[in-house]
Amino acid sequence: MPRGNTASSQTTKATLGLRELVLEGELAPGGRVPEVELAERLGVSRTPLRIALATLAHEGLLEPLAGGGFVVRAFTHDDVVDAIELRGVLEGTAARLAAERLGSRRELVPLEEAVAELDPVVDRTGPEALVRFVALNERFHEALVALAKSPVVARSIANVVALPFASPNALLSSHALLPRSHEILVVAQHQHRALLEAIADGHGTRAEEIAREHARLARRNLDLVLADRDALAAVRGAPLLRSVAGG
Q1: Which class for 214: exposed (0-12), middle (13-18), buried (19 or more C-beta within 10 A)?
Q2: Is 30 left (phi over 0), alpha (psi -120 to 50) or beta?
Q3: Strand pairing partners for 62?
Q4: Which residues pair with 70 in a beta bridge?
Q5: CB-CB contact of 147 with 111 (8 Å)
């Protein structure tokens, strides 16, 4: 294997491994990241580990210390709310641009297919339906961003959704444990369809409003999750929020 590929592979290994340790709570929030120990644990050298540390700091999972090194970031309730709100602003902008820049009806096909495939999923309940909803919901949001035809907006959204709890699917893993889960999914699908129609009709302002309201559904979902310890435990990255939930 060429040397460049080896270095890239080591960096990827370090980044994925470090992110997993943080999100699973193996590295406690507020705790200093032990670089030497981590390099040995992940089976990488110090250089790719340092690149991984910088990557996670850019994503907001780590905080750099003034004297060098990093600590794992702890997320407050307001941090999560702000991240969700910012995603709503950015996805609202993406929706408005999608409506304004739509060249032909054919460009809507990926969005239409995701909505059509979500309809029967929402009518079902259970773990399998939830897994399918998560996959299709991700497709819908990716198609929405693509329709904006804006690399700047796409990069900004990618940065926001890298934060725990901020992505469209971040809290969906908890739905199997929430009494009101099906109701939330039905509302989400109604918003998906309304957003598709607004973009198809070229109504940019309306599309922006719906996309922002759609993100706020995650805000309401957050309150339900934080009120249920079992549901919170099912959320990826939950250890970073335990202090918020009183745990």
Answers
A1: buried
A2: left
A3: 72
A4: 64
A5: yes
pLDDT, tens digit, 9 for 90 and up, residues 67-112:
889 999 988 888 888 989 999 999 999 999 999 999 999 999 999 9
Q: Which two tokens stand for residue 123?
A: 């009518």
Q: Which of 238, 115, 78 is nearest to 247 (CA)?
A: 238
Q: Which of 67, 75, 66, 68 is nearest to 30 (CA)?
A: 75
- Indicate the SS3 state at residue 247: coil
C-alpha dihedral over 79, 80, 83, 89, to 10 degrees?
-120
Cβ–Cβ < 8 Å for 236, 167: no
Written as six digits, the tokens of 183 are: 């109701």
In the numeric block, which tokens belong to residue 155?
């990069």
Residue 1 structure tokens: 């294997």
For 115-148, write each residue's pLDDT tens digit: 999 999 988 877 788 888 889 999 999 999 999 9
**Residues forming beta bridges with residue 72, ordered by sequence position:** 62
Runs of H (alpha helix) within the chain: 3-23, 35-42, 46-59, 77-101, 109-122, 127-147, 151-161, 181-200, 204-226, 229-233
- Coil/strand/helix, residue 62: strand
Closest by Cα among 87, 29, 126, 33 to 214:
87
- Pair of tokens at residue 29: 């929030």
Q: Which two tokens stand for residue 141?
A: 């949001």
Biggest CA pair distance of the chain: 57
Query: pTM for this structure?
Result: 0.81
Instruction: Residue 181: name the closest of 238, 124, 113, 142 by CA.
Output: 124
